[in-house]
């Protein structure tokens, strides 16, 4: 360091001025360029995160519309149906009501009632094993234990058509049994998989038990990995960063109030850098041009300063030598 200082001190005034001006120019341009690049990165990241939040709101509204309407329907059925409607000859009338409901709601795969006496009425009418006991099924037990509350099961694949299904069920108001229906999530899955966040980012939905409902890279019904999903169950909404497959990802998420499902949006951190690269390259070009133009100006300004100084030095020497 001392050698550099000595060399600088021994330089001519012109060189000192040139170097000083260049250092100031480079520092100023670099600072402005760096700040502009960082600002651009933050703006791009903010845009992508806003896109993720907007899409989360869209999915949240879609879930509320889809599931919320079915909550109203199952509540109505639990109120108007009692044990007299599914005993003996009255089953035909009940099946007619169920059939009309399915015709009006093609997303419903099946509607059924399970009585406390193990009586089971369903539409469409599928042949069940002779020893089938609906009161042993999880949806029945959960609905009874909820005592009038609505339950939503984990997503599962229908064995007949392969669709992803959830069961919505509620204990009947007279407590004689449980009414429920199977809802396919085709529309919700399609909408979720159509969403793009940035270029490579995506949206996803998990149920209240960390099971995957919709995810473009994972299988519906599987449990989501703790490495990224567990953090979403520690609070109702938020954001975090994690690494997967050598890529850093950022996740924003929220919780649907009706179901407890987690709705998330994932973006790749590398996309922010990629999006800001044109700004970085433009700044480099501007810096080079500025250095060339600034360097030329500094050179001529330095000459305009040093030339008179040189003349003054020459004149001073002549005077000191007695040449007046």
| Largest sheet composition | 6 strands, antiparallel
Alpha carbon gap, first and last residue: 44 Å
The CATH top-level class label of one domain: Alpha Beta
- Arithmetic mean of pLDDT: 83
Poorly predicted parts: none
CATH structural architecture of one domain: 2-Layer Sandwich
CA radius of gyration: 36 Å
Given the helix and strand composition, which structural class is it?
Answer: alpha+beta
Strand content: 15-25%
Q: Helicity, in percent?
A: 40-55%
Instruction: Give the total of beta strands.
Output: 12
The SSE string, one letter per element, is: HHHEEHEEEEHEEEHEEEH
InterPro entries: dCache_1, Sensor-like_sf, Tar_rcpt_lig-bd
Membrane topology: Multi-pass membrane protein
Protein name: Chemotaxis protein
Keywords: Cell membrane, Chemotaxis, Membrane, Methylation, Transducer, Transmembrane, Transmembrane helix
Overall description:
26% of the residues are buried. The chain is 51% helix and 21% strand. The strands form 2 sheets. Strands 1, 2, 3, 4, 5 and 6 form a 6-stranded antiparallel beta sheet that branches. Strands 7, 8, 9, 10, 11 and 12 form a 6-stranded antiparallel beta sheet that branches. It contains 7 helices and 12 strands. With 324 residues, the chain is α+β, with helices and mostly antiparallel strands. The longest helix has 68 residues, at 13-80. It has a domain at 74-184: PAS domain (Beta-Lactamase), CATH 3.30.450.20. Helix 2 (13-80) packs antiparallel against helix 7 (269-320).
